[in-house]
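Issue 218. Parser rejects a valid record. Input:
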Amino acid sequence: MGTGRAAAFFDLDKTIIATSSVTAFSRPFYAGGLITRKDVLRTAYAQFLFLLGRADADQTERMRAHLSTMVAGWDVAQVSSIVAETLHLHIEPTVYAEAVSLIDEHHAAGRDVVVVSASGSEVVAPIAALLGADHVIASRMEIVDGRYTGEIAYYAYGEHKASAVRALAEEQGYDLDASYAYSDSVTDVPLLASVGIAAVVNPDRALRRLAGERGWDVLTFQRPVALRTRFPAPRRSVPTLLVVLAAVAAGILLARRRSRA
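Output the parser choked on:
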């Protein structure tokens, strides 16, 4: 652990934003003819379970396998372009005002803000940039010749998140004992336990109980905020809707395995 400045580590889905960072893009995929109605319904059901905290490991694994087949071979550069073009429309309305205020408070106090997510970096990094975060820890898909293979190169999940946080702290000189972490998920207990000041966000009963046992604060986030006045929308290039599906590739494949504690 460092002996210098502190940092604040934020989970993304249901902590900074009120949805899954990747399934939020399903509507334009369908509108562009990229996925079928069955795919939309399947994604919507997965999102419903995710929001309720009821997606078990088997359901998550089936979704991962289905999407792995669907997205392998998509062009990485096109993914990044489409995510940038649709970010304001599909992510901005879901951002919690309370999270934005916390990010501002940490920056005002001189702390770096780090977004730590199991979703893919192609989805997480643009959202983090929109929010003014200083660093990103996210999952990475394997890429060969500029295209996704469908395999995972690095999975930022569970203990892997905590390990990545410790590595970043060593690199940046963060004092983890003086640092903060925020998450809604029981799978992020290793992340929360790696810092001196932790808080759970909109926890289910099991995580709320654990927070009580460990002395972690319990926060309620519920108000969306309009970011458009803070961060101007990007200039749109001519969209190639044929590749929009790829924007969800890394993240949905890496949907967190949410199970009860």
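Fixed in the parser; the record now loads. The first strand starts at residue 7 and ends at 10.
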